[in-house]
Amino acid sequence: MPGTRDQTAVTLPVMVRRNLQTVSDERVLLATGHPRGHWFALLDAAGAQGWRHPAIAAFLRDQGVPGWWSQGITVAYEQERGLRLPGQRPDGTFDANISRTFRVPADALWPLLVDDAAREAWLGSGWVVARQTAGRSLRLTAPDGTSAVLGVEHPRARSGGAEGHTHHPDHPNHPDHTNHPDHANHPDPAAPAGAVRLAVQHAKLPDPETVERSKRLWSEALGRLADHLG
Predict the structure, then answer these.
(1) Which terminus of the chain has a lower count of CB atoms within 10 Å, N or C?
(2) What DSSP state is assigned to residue 49?
(3) CA distance 12 to 49
(4) Bigger pLDDT: 157 or 226?
(5) Phi, psi of 21 (to 5 degrees)
(6) What is the rounded distance in angstroms from the CA atom of residue 5 to the CA atom of residue 27?
């Protein structure tokens, strides 16, 4: 029985798009043989509005929906039935995601992340290193007990300017989770030569208002980091 319920400008999205806005119904039809409406109707008939996320996804897999698509359809169903807000994780929490591209090599950026005194100068006090993978990612514990992962990404160079890139839980290629900053070294065709991107994911936030406060905090902090890099 299913369970119950150039420093380039920083990218600061005001809202996260719904799954229906990021993955077309045509793609769902091609991948599963039916449009979303068909799967939503089956879920409604089965009483899925009272189920938790894993149970909904498992039901869809039992109906022959591939695993990746079962997750995406589950997210869309939860959003459209009011069971989940856009950007909300299955556990009810939210992530704040923000990134900035710097025109410096990674070995110039990394010391400002891992050295306590250097980090405090741009981020403030009370952030403690919980774990790190040298040159790639750093997990910090915030003063309030939440955690943030900072991922150093090495974009593919190109000529011209760059834009920040934001990861969010309804990314079309990741229907139920973010592109985690621990996963560094993803090529970015929009980045200039000699640049490095710092992607931040501040996790387990209780509501959208806290997410916006976190984004403002990190936007200001990354601006100070840019000043330190010169």
Answers:
(1) N
(2) G
(3) 32
(4) 226
(5) -85, -20
(6) 28
Contact 134, 167 (CB under 8 A): no
- Tokens (6 digits) for 135: 């040159």
- The lowest-confidence range among 78-87, 130-139, 221-230 is 78-87
Neighbouring residues of 110: CB distance < 8 A, sequence distance ≥ 6: 134, 135, 152
Domain count, the chain: 2
Residue 170 has φ and ψ, to the nearest 5°, of -110, 25
Residue 154 lies in domain: 94-229
Residue 114 lies in a domain: yes
DSSP label at residue 207 = S
User: Is 72 found in the same domain as 109?
Assistant: no
51 and 116 housed in the same domain: no
**Which secondary-structure segment (H or E) carries 109?**
helix 106-114
